[in-house]
Amino acid sequence: MLELRDIVKRFPVKGPGRRVVHAVEGVSFSIPPGETLGLVGESGCGKSTVARTAMRIYEPTSGSILLDGEDITGMRERELKTRRKKIQMIFQDPYASLNARMKVRDIIAEPLVAHGAFGSQAETTEAVASILERVGLGRQHMNRYPHEFSGGQRQRIGIARALILGPKVMICDEPISALDVSIQAQVVNLLKSIQRENGISYLFIAHDLAMVRYVSHTVGVMYLGRIVERCRSEEIYGRPLHPYTKGLLASAPSPRPPEPGAERAPSIEGDIPSPIAPPPGCAFHTRCRYAEAACREAIPVLRQVESGHEVACHLF
Ligand code: SF4
């Protein structure tokens, strides 16, 4: 349903020299209908840039984007507008993503107006009421303003706005990280039930590994602009292979104390290097305890090392 082929996105840096931020370097994936790809990684690894490039909010430096089998990479805005109905986005901050001066009815109806898909006032109101009920709110909320709602309710409004055009793909850019923990599960369960009903594909960006595991069919781990490991969700948690993935999992707090004598992978030390000057070879070599000479020279290619399990590491 959504396919990215070898996407590169670089941003020029202002000032002397021709420096660029290497935000995304050759990311490829495809998401089948009704499935979720979770992208995880530390802040600054490029996962949000991938999401925005897939939406064509950012133009890719190179590579191509296919939506529902159609290449939308070079499409002009006029042609792209009709395709945008198929791909919608839920933003991270439910406080900043809703216009504080608009009533909920108008916020949700806005995409219909933008795409010329609205009918009479009464039909639009009915469409908004129906989608509000689908996300667990009600008709009585239509004439209120965003500040009258809690964070979780605002995110439901954001989901309703994304759903009103009947998209086939939803890009969820950290949709729960600004919410209280008690509300996160409600929003995620809502997204899952919408997927079961409508067969929507999700690209789900998050840094909470437990939540990504819960929502995703496939997980991609990103480091400094590249996917370094990708496989089915249960595999990545049951049998991680890349040293970075192992370190990420070891860094996540566990509700259970480790078994006596159980070996636990060491967590990752140090900071992620600057994407303006990424390290040569494997970008993770500055933090990897297994790094050897070849790691400083050659960039490891993401390749299948077991059935359905891809890793970019010279150890494999
Ligand atoms: Fe570590 Fe080398 Fe593998 Fe990179 S390629 S993760 S530095 S072992």
Walk me through the structure.
- By secondary structure, this protein is α/β, with parallel strands linked by helices.
- The protein contains 9 helices and 12 strands.
- It has helices spanning 47-54, 77-83, 104-114, 121-134, 151-163, 181-198, 209-215, 233-238, 243-251; strands spanning 2-12, 20-31, 36-40, 62-67, 70-71, 87-90, 169-173, 201-205, 218-223, 226-232, 303-306, 309-311.
- The strands form 2 sheets. It has an 8-stranded mixed beta sheet with strand order 6-7-8-3-9-10-12-11, sandwiched between helices. Strands 2-1-4-5 form a 4-stranded antiparallel beta sheet, with helices on one face.
- Helix 3 (104-114) crosses helix 4, helix 3 packs parallel to helix 5 and helix 5 packs parallel to helix 6.
- 36% of the residues are buried.
- Residues 243, 282, 284-285, 288, 290-291, 295, 300, 313-315 line the site of iron/sulfur cluster.
- The site of iron/sulfur cluster has 12 residues, from loops.
Write the layout of secondary structure elements.
Layout: E1 2-12, E2 20-31, E3 36-40, H1 47-54, E4 62-67, E5 70-71, H2 77-83, E6 87-90, H3 104-114, H4 121-134, H5 151-163, E7 169-173, H6 181-198, E8 201-205, H7 209-215, E9 218-223, E10 226-232, H8 233-238, H9 243-251, E11 303-306, E12 309-311
Parallel strand pairs: 3-8, 3-9, 6-7, 7-8
Antiparallel strand pairs: 1-2, 1-4, 4-5, 9-10, 10-12, 11-12
Helix pairs in contact: 3-4, 3-5, 4-5, 5-6
Iron/sulfur cluster is lined by residues 243, 282, 284-285, 288, 290-291, 295, 300, 313-315.
Keywords for this entry:
globular, 8-stranded mixed β-sheet, binds iron/sulfur cluster, Rossmann fold, alpha/beta, 316 residues, 9 helices
